[in-house]
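Dear colleague,

Thank you for sharing your sequence with our group. We've completed the structure prediction you requested, and as agreed, I am returning the results in plain text so they can be pasted directly into your records. Please verify that the sequence below matches your submission; if there's any discrepancy, let me know and we will rerun it promptly.
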Amino acid sequence: MNIIDKTIAYFAPEKALKRQKARIISDKIKLAYDASGNQRRVISWKPQSTDATTEITPALITLRNRARDLRRNNPIANKIIRTFANHIIGTGVLLSCEDEELLKIYNDWAWSHECDFNNTLNWHGLQHLIVECLAEAGEVLIRKRLLKRDGIPLAIEVLEPDFLALDKTDEKKNLFNGIQFDSEGKPVTYHLYKNHPGGSNSSSELIPVPAEEIIHLFRKDRPGQIRGVPWLTPVMLKLKRFDDLISNQLERVALANLLCATVYNREGEDNATPTELELTPGAILELPVGKEIVWNTPPDAGDTATLQKTLLQQIGTGVNIPYEIISCNYEDFNFSSARMSINQHLQEVENLRWNLIIPAFDRIVKWFFEAADLAGEYSYNPEELPIYDFTPSRNVLVDLTREIPTWIEAVKAGLITLSEAQRQFGFNSIELLNEYKADLDRLDSLGIALSTDYRNELKKSASQQQKAA
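Please find the predicted structure tokens below.
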């Protein structure tokens, strides 16, 4: 007991006892959570209790620039970004619709470059670009543009998040990081730079764009978060250290190959003409009397394979992508281990696909319906939309001989429709079935029977039934 406790105990023993009990309980609570203690190993660990905006704002530009630099110069970082885009989008998220005429108009627009404001990609290429920018920079802007032209006037403009003025904040106007909110906390206006702030024609001029014309896409990791951070953030330092490790190892290997020899004159005579020796495989050198060759001892290059694998495993865990995919190392990797390894990653992909990406694409489809109405090709009524759905591209099959029969059984059991299965393989179901029927009619007209024609089995079965009857 300290002097204060002793004084209180002398004048008020009951209060002193309560203080002692409270101190004991407090000590027990601290012991229950090691991570909240002040032990030597965590004494310098003092994170701040800030909200998401206060936490992200000062760090975002640096994180974004470093993520882009890693992607440009680090093959592992580039592999991670591409893997997310390839697995979430693949060859494209397809639309299915009960209105076949409307679906044809949509597909004509989606497969043309006219859907791109910059007129370079079709809609499925834009999908891939959207996810790549999202993973690399942590967020992406999709802007609705209506152009004066024949046909569907809608064009999609994909913008890097640099356009959204991070430093524009005015609490009185409920404006934070370039986004203005209404009294209920919903975005109403996005303040975009006229040109990219990092370009040669950068400008401080801002353009207010209504929220109805902008999709601000980012992964929300905290409630109240209004800007996104690069997906490489948790592993950024490890990616840099892995890069440094490989560079240093290459230097050590180069040094280890610097083998040279020194010719000594043991008789101590000064030889003005140095002896030049050419080393060739299998050579037998005859040295003058008194000369001796002494070889240098290059440093050992060392073996960092275990450390490299550990680093890549931690990087893979940080971004939820299997080590085998990141490293392209498939040694001791069979079908079962491949499925187990990729399942968690595919759960992450499905979550991002259906809870983040496809809801954004749904807004774009509604933009398309409005634009088709403006073009006079479709009567748009927000209250009576046609029934439509999205079909993502299937994931790459690991073993065709095992997985194709699974798809067939799923269709037979009614777990998935034939059209849905065809769309997941990247085909337009209506076009595929029409083409299949045309092929069958052409085979019949030419009198050709293929062993793969399912009608052969139907004819055989009907014949057996007739004989049995």
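Summary note from our side: The first strand starts at residue 94 and ends at 97.

Kind regards,
the structure core
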